[in-house]
Amino acid sequence: MTALGQRIAEARGRAGRTQVELASAISMDRSALAKIESGTRRVTALELARIADAVNARIEWFLEDAPPAIVSRRNTQEPGAPSPRIDMMVERITREVELLARYDTRFVLGVSPEREMPTDAAAAETLAGEARGFMGVDGDGPCTQLADKVAAIGLLVFSFDLGVESADAATILLRSGGVSVVN
User: Fold this and answer.
1) What is the DSSP string of 67-116?
2) Which of 60, 93, 140, 173 could form a disulfide with 112 if both were Cys (CB 3.0 to 4.6 A apart)?
3) What letter does residue 28 receive in the DSSP assignment?
4) Beta-bridge partner residues of 72
């Protein structure tokens, strides 16, 4: 499977669509879409634009690698487990932040410390404790003026209602700064 075909298949999966549903939405035969996803058929620019629109993605998502990052998901059922809705949202915002940083030299984020993705609840809590320490927030008290505190350490926070099936939060640390989405 080519990288482009694999990215199309992944985007289709994140959008919760089958090949039949996506092919129908873009007026394409399912077998043609299957060949695109497997890398045995080329995709035209117009087809790629239709696919991007149907799965609510930007065309460059299919053509450029995702931002190099560690993704940490705070999920109460399975810490660190994939959560497609929040993963898609945090990647979308990250790409937009990186685009803004690339073209607007006034937009600068601090350097992010290297961290490993937590693999269990204890590791997630340890990482959360470190983050609270960076922000100067007491471990047991409430965190007021959160946006100002996280911005001071180079993290941009966005809040969206992604439903109860999605993780509570996801964070991507970039080479410079980071992005966090809170559900």
Assistant:
1) PP-EEEEE-SSSTT---HHHHHHHHHHHHHHHHHHHH-TT---PBPPP-P
2) 173
3) -
4) 171
How many residues can be counted in the chain?
A: 183
Give the Å distances, CA to CA, from 175 to 9, 38, 156, 178, 180.
Answer: 28, 32, 14, 8, 14
- Integer angstrom CA distances of residue 163 from 57, 74, 119: 20, 14, 23
Are residues 30 and 23 in contact, defined by beta-carbon separation less than 8 angstroms? yes
Placement of tokens 């607007």 in the chain: 104
State the pTM of this model.
0.57
What are the C-alpha distances in Å from 97 to residues 30, 36, 78, 93, 136? 35, 30, 28, 6, 25
64-101 pLDDT, tens digit each: 876 655 555 556 566 556 667 777 777 788 878 877 87
Q: Residue-wise over 17-33: b if at least 16 C-beta within 10 A, else e?
A: bebeebbeebebeeeeb
Calculate the CA 16 to chain-centre distance.
16
Contact criterion met (CB below 8 Å) for 177 and 156:
yes
For the record, the structure tokens of 79 come out as: 């810490």
Q: Tell me which residue of 158, 67, 151 sits closest to 110, measured CA to CA.
A: 151
Q: 25-41, pLDDT tens digit by residue?
A: 999 999 999 999 999 99
- How far apart are the C-alpha atoms of 137 and 144, rounded to whole Å? 9
